[in-house]
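Consider one such protein record:
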Amino acid sequence: MGIRAFVSAVLVAFIVGDIYRENRMGKPWASVVSKVQAPVQNFLRPAVWVPGLRNLHSHRETWTLPSDSHQNNLESVLGALMTVIKEDKSGSFWDVQKNDLQVARGFIRVFVYTRAEWLDIIELTFKGTEVQVWSFSSGFLPLFIPFACVLNVPLFWIPFLDNGLNKHRINKIVKAMDVSVDRH
């Protein structure tokens, strides 16, 4: 058995195992192949390289929150985010990428794997009472495809729509907030 056959067998086993797990548990999930490729896809972000094209599948806005306390603002947004994740019925898997240092500096990143395992990313940057929010699709190919994070690089120029999904996610987070949000 050659190395290529071995690697193929391992990848198939991961994918089949994930499909079995999803059917048994009925909860949103992301395959191992997708989770391994996500950090690379996040670093490269080929779908947002071209300014005109990125507008087709991204949404940016700034929120002004009422509290002057950085901690209160973080807690309000994180609480809303957890509510949205818990109530999400789209079959998307939400993976909040927050480490203590980033949160202390006022930055939260969320990987959202759609049912088809496209990776959408939500970034929230806190500056005083303002929160800069950016939600975007990261690449043309879904990450369940082996090496999609690399294959997406030469495909950066292909236009595609997110059908307003990134804006919709941001709207859901704002709606779940326990404080009033001034959006601009």
